TrEMBL record:
Keywords: Signal. It comes from the Bacteria. This is Cell envelope biogenesis protein TolA. Residues 1-23 form the signal peptide.
Length: 182
């Protein structure tokens, strides 16, 4: 539960950073490439450390390295693209990698404990996917509502301008258009 809250807060921080970033700038492209390269080199180093281990702990080590790489690459891609779709896709990919790690951890168990572990991993995956999609829908709904409110406020301002005539009316309409972005 605590991890879910931390992930949600991290996701909100990532989303705000993604919306603030502009993918068209050379700095953003360089930052994206640097983050992607850093994630790849960290993966290679972690993967090399895993070679000293054998059995299920090695598999867990490899999946943890993969998860770290996926998280780094996907978060960088979401910030670089700066879109809600990219942010949601990033969260879905990270959830999938987390699921893969959880499944490998379950391999070490036997019997009912293994079955429960696998079901818990699936439940966590489904919850993360549902949260990502729900957050996307909520953000889209807020954006649409904001646009609708702005349009309604613009119509009110235009209607108020009907009380004037000539240049005063033109000035009023122009001010309303600039204020409401129309």
């Amino acid at each position: 539960m605590k991890q879910a809250v931390i992930r949600a807060l991290g996701g909100a921080l990532l989303m705000s950073a993604a919306l603030a970033a502009s993918a068209a700038t050379p700095e953003a492209t360089a930052a994206y490439s640097q983050a992607r390269d850093a994630a790849t080199s960290a993966y290679k180093a972690a993967r090399a450390r895993c070679d000293a281990i054998s059995g299920n702990p090695k598999e867990v080590c490899v999946e943890e390295a993969k998860l770290a790489r996926v998280r780094g690459v996907e978060e960088a891609a979401a910030i670089y693209k700066g879109t809600l779709k990219a942010y949601t896709q990033s969260r879905l990919e990270i959830a999938g990698a987390t699921y893969d790690l959880d499944r490998v951890k379950c391999k070490a168990l036997t019997g009912n404990d293994k079955d429960v572990c696998i079901q818990q991993a699936k439940a966590t995956l489904i919850a993360a996917q549902a949260d990502a999609r729900a957050d996307k829908k909520a953000i889209e709904a807020r954006t649409d509502a904001r646009a609708d409110k702005r349009t309604a406020e613009y119509k009110v301002a235009r209607e108020k301008c009907d009380a004037f005539a000539g240049a005063a009316k033109d000035s009023c309409v122009s001010a309303a258009k600039s204020q409401y972005g129309k």
